[in-house]
Protein: AcrR family transcriptional regulator
Organism: Actinopolymorpha pittospori
Amino acid sequence: MPKRQRTTTPKAGASSTSERRLGANVRADAQRNRTAIVRATVESLGNNSDASVADIAAAAGVGRMTLYGHFKTRAELVEAALLDALDRGDEVLSRLELGGDPRKAFAALIESSWMLVDQSRALLTAAQKELPPTRIRELHQKAEAHVRGLLERGQREGAFRTDLPVSWLLATTHVVMHGAADEIAVGRLNPEEAPRYIRATLLAAFAPADGPDRGSVTP
């Protein structure tokens, strides 16, 4: 009689380990794709605020179905890109030395903040088309915390006016900086002049009536 072939059954433990590894690889691939999509969105919208989803998918090296698997709508995609840019900007602002004279520190903070806004002008334009203003403001909260802390210290030390709340000074800062970006977009403001205009406007607006001269301060 022919010998019966012995069949081996995979051990349950080995099968479970293989499944875990496969699952981990799938998750890692998904995370890499998501990261690539977000970075490609930042770059694509930075060059053209009207870049299509197809353009972004191609730049990320993925198909449109893969992109839509991570982001159901263009608004979700733009929000993720803006949040990524803001997080990287927050790392830059966190390294600033904001001690000493509050007015000089504020001028330095405005300079760095404007550089970040300027770099993301096209991305911000895309966000303004896709997201409500309240959501854009919410996404800026982490970056605004640096400005808020400095304004509060400046008020305590008499460098900034106290007849208006910090929330209003913060809102004014937001409006002036993003207003400058809008003026550049329509060609009414030279990008190189923007930092000086912003500093001069905000320092004059925030100076106490009996405090420092209402003029610009060179950091």
About this structure: Residues 3 and 184 are 85 Å apart (CA to CA).
